[in-house]
UniProtKB/TrEMBL annotation:
This is 5'-nucleotidase. It comes from Trichuris trichiura. InterPro entries: HAD-like_sf (IPR036412), HAD_sf (IPR023214), Pyrimidine_nucleotidase_eu (IPR006434). GO terms for biological process: nucleotide metabolic process. It comes from the Eukaryota. GO terms for molecular function: 5'-nucleotidase activity; magnesium ion binding; nucleotide binding. The keyword Magnesium applies. It is an enzyme of class 3 (hydrolase).
Amino acid sequence: MSDSAVLEKVKKTISDLQERRFIFIRDVATLEAKLERLCDETTSAVQVRNRPHCSCAIDVVSDFDFTISKYANSTGERLWTTHDVFDQGIRVIKMELYEEVQALRAKYLPIEFSTEMSIEEKIPHMETWWRLAHACIVRAGFSRADLKTLASVARIELRNGFTEFLNWAEKNGVPVTIFSAGIANIIRELFNHRVGRVPLNMRVIGNEFSFDEFGVVCGFFEPLIHTYNKNISAIKCKDDFMGSLKDRRNVVLFGDTLGDARMDLGIDESERILKIGFLNHTVDGMKESYMRAYDVVISDPSDFNTASELLFSLLGR
């Protein structure tokens, strides 16, 4: 494809996005440059490798809670995070412990979403919250078998169109890394239950349970991952991840919080990273902050199709 054809395709893609009232773009020129590079290098990779797909060009990094999963259902009711799954399980087992969990949420949730505190100021509070909440999960005594049951009844739905996107990534050999401050074990169970498998091209990085000899949760492995330390430079498998990027010159990042937009810390070239953010609530109050953090902001609490179409329009299906 000629340079002019690539540029024309990119400009049309951006124009189509701008016509949608729930999409916000702050810096059109930067987005245009990133999409043009993505399209160019995908075409080059296909030509060099003589393959029909874009598997050489991109790596996908995505949050799970309210990014891959819906924030709200068709009636507008808020759905669950992976931590909510265990909170509700605790509610059934021991109400006193559930009340303790809810007290932690009431104290720390306003800090997580505060617009008056810096991320650096929030970090120690988030670490305290996560550790105390995880201690409650351990005290509840969930077993491996419980995880399957909890996943089957969890009020968690994948965003409309995400399964199709996942199938596309699997077919084209595009690696998908789910990077979550939630519970990695339940994410895998949710994929087994909702999709029927954890695809071979997917890896899940998150907070991991440790189990005792009876298969009961007895703790969590380090490092602790919370909203604001969730980035490539902080994870144990950083070298493996960076190695996987050597032949994949672009990263597509999906998130729903301002912290998610920092998941690329550890990757040096920001121009290689296309950031797509889902703004699920408080749109008027948070829109400007999200537009500074993400290249494209989508204010839809349940749909993934727009994000998919953006990539499909450039890379093909």
